[in-house]
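Support case: user asked for a sample of complex input and structure output to validate their parser. Sending the pair below.
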Amino acid sequence: MARDDYEIVIGLEVHAELSTKTKIFCNCKTAFGARPNTQICPVCTAMPGALPVLNEKVVEYAVKAGLATNCEIERNSKNDRKNYFYPDTPKAYQISQYDKPLCIGGNIEIETSNGTKKIGITRIHIEDDAGKLNHDDLGGGSLVDLNRAGVPLIEIVSEPDMRSSEEADKYLKKLKSILEYIEVSDCKMEEGSLRADVNVSVRKKGEKAFGQRTEMKNMNSFRSIVRAIDYEAQRQIDVIEAGRKISQETLRWDEVSGKTFSMRDKENAEDYRYFPDPDLVAIKLSEEYIQNVKNSLPELPESRKKRYLEQYNLSEKDAKIITSSKYLSDLFEKAGEISGNIKAVGNWIISDISRILNETEQDPISIPFDAKQLAELVMLIDKGTISSSIGKKVLEELFENPRSPEEIIKEKGWIQISDEGAIKEIVLKILEANPQSIADFKAGKDRAIGFLVGQAMKETKGKANPQMLNKMFLEELNK
Amino acid sequence: MDITELTVHELQQKLKNKELTAVQIVKAYIDRINEKEPKVDAFITLQLEEALKKAEEIDSKIANGEDISSLAGIPIGIKDNICTKGVKTTCASKMLENFIAPYDATVMEKINAEEIIDLGKLNMDEFAMGSSTEYSYFKKTKNPWDLTRIPGGSSGGPAAAVAANLVPWALGTDTGGSIRQPAAVCGVVGLKPTYGLVSRYGVVAFASSLDQVGTFTKDVEDCAKLLNVIAGRDEKDTTSVDVGKKDYTQSLGKEIKGLKIGVPKEFYGEGINQEVKNAILNAMEEYKKLGAEVEEFSLDVAELSLATYYIIACAEASSNLGRYDGIRYGYRTKNYNNVRELMKNSRSEGFGEEVKRRIILGTYVLSSGYYDAYYKKAQQVRTLVNNKFNEAFKKYDVLLTPTSPTTAFKLGEKSTNPLEMYLSDICTVSVNIAGLPGISIPCGVDSKGLPIGMQLIGNKFSEETILKVAYAYEKQTKFRENYKPTFKEGV
């Protein structure tokens, strides 16, 4: 397979649910997880005669997203109807934006293994989400839950600028981070509040024209997106190499088999019959309005990173890790402030916290403990109440069952042994058991000290004060 | 005294003077309905017991000296496409045969706030699509002036009910002439306000950019009074406009001397019945006698508007009626194996022929590849029509035209010929296309004794002007005193 001859071209359409309190066209609540059909009204259930009223917050949030991704904001925008029949779509049309989206022509920068790259944003528009179908195992039918119908979405359409699954992954993560920073979406992928349609095509390297693309709809995990892109690109290459043509179709990615399946081909493509929604008036934004939204934007990851380099002397790499997520970054600043040792907080985040998140495939936002608890952990170590190796155990405990670290160490009996008499007893015991190490030390091998301290830590299950151990071993050996 | 002969302003006077009670009024209407409704078939749902109960409550409030609205106790009829909480709102469709509205339309909240008593829901063409009320799924309403003839449409129920004294006044809706044309052929006053003057919230949408709630009344004064009740910006309808609180009765009786009335000759040319033409010529003479300056001029919008209308209205309808899918409410087919079939068969079985015809037409004009040729073109023509009216209103205060090209035609005469039926709207649709106010008032009868209506068109939000001009004519000609419906079969 001549994979190296080919270039993969990827474009993403990302849907993010906006975190407004009420829906886009009515006053119903948007909270996730409520009992089915408890957050509905005549408007979002499309009762005869009901009319939409555009939630101004939705426009504001979309403009924020546009400004944060370097888009132009359209002064004259409008809502259009996208007509299609589906049981989760009560009006039989989605109110979206067709030819005059709120934001156009932006970009965001990503860091790839080949350096910095700009990914173009074609447009950002607002629209309403559909309801949900719950398949009823007992009755054999489906039940419609309209709580989500009318939850506001922004759709962020990228240019076909990405050339690998890695770039797509970086782009998505960066976009997610920006949306979290400006607090327009909670981006909880597992709740479906961030999902992407992935367009993939391949072409021979050097070719100018794009290849025929396929689209994978509604993907909501970074890992699946990467896998799906790699699979689909290879599938397309195989098809082309076999002398056949790629057909324009919508695909479904199956996580279990790791394959894509055709949902709809071009022949069966929907004609959405877009037209301006006559129930809504044009959206006109003044310069003053746009300036006000601009002024209200919070600090974005780039400038936060810059600040960390200067203010806290963090390395470029560490600052990047911390600012990659608003949640991590906020945790860093808050715990740093409470504990008075931001350096130590930073180290926890960069090393152990990041490691645990990676291992458990969790988002920073799902960290169960708060800044106060992390700060307490740092302070306990600084005071010498626990050792840093106990600290690691406390952190794991915080992920498992978050509560006050003070409580954890009391409950687990992890308080550090700093009593001189007790330490001396341990030191003598270890020395007695390790005559070889004494001989090594006397022969000039300083490393033997490390081994002895390690043994002592093992003996005390990490509770002994390591500095004291070190000091006392030296004293005893030099006697 | 026949209570049901009285106008609302006369009833108000008698209520105020304690010559009549609300119960007496409602009872008189119940008797009248019992007598005439079997002949006219204007209602889909009657609410007579509830109405009587409300009348009793209002009388006791009056007896207790409570401060109540001056319209409290006055009955009304409501076209069946306006949502009334807890009451069937069917749009005269099998699709909504058993649909009970879970909320009140904004206009109903206003009616209820005045303690006006709803006697029931009135017949119409299914989803307001038609000009004869023959496309109702439930029944054919008859014209009280000749029971073998149509009452016009789509608001045939409200028009016939007011003409037959089954209600003193009624609310209707007008998308292309659905208030004015039935008002004309039933010999009553019908007003379609400026687009945006009255809230559409809770009014079952046919064509959102054209629909407007309006009034059926016995005379122009009642028309102004009912407009006072329903007009006003509604935050639930972003297309509604705030023009400030007005009392539309204020301008009535003011002089029209020197007022400029333009008569567009294209509106009474080919296709307009000669007797209708003559009535318009007579009306022009009356206005001259009243001191107005009346002038013929050219306004080439009628035909353009008709074509534009059927594209825009059908396009919007095809989308607005998508929600009737058998999933959440309304008719659901028994014949399905999967959800596609459920939706498809519910719609195929639940909608009537004319509704389906317009949905198909609308779907077609919005389809990719046809959008530019039809929908986009229609919007351009719409702008053109607007501009032509703007030009006309630089010269004239109001425009005078026939309302309908003919008087009431026979039941069944056009119901199988959609194109001919569509021509019934030729004089009225341009007013909707341009979003202007239009009023139809009676201006005589033809040789068969069937009423003829004339239409006065005003500039946007100039309801006061057209009401004043209509009132002056009405006072001069006294149609109601000279002519009454006969309830005969065949004239």
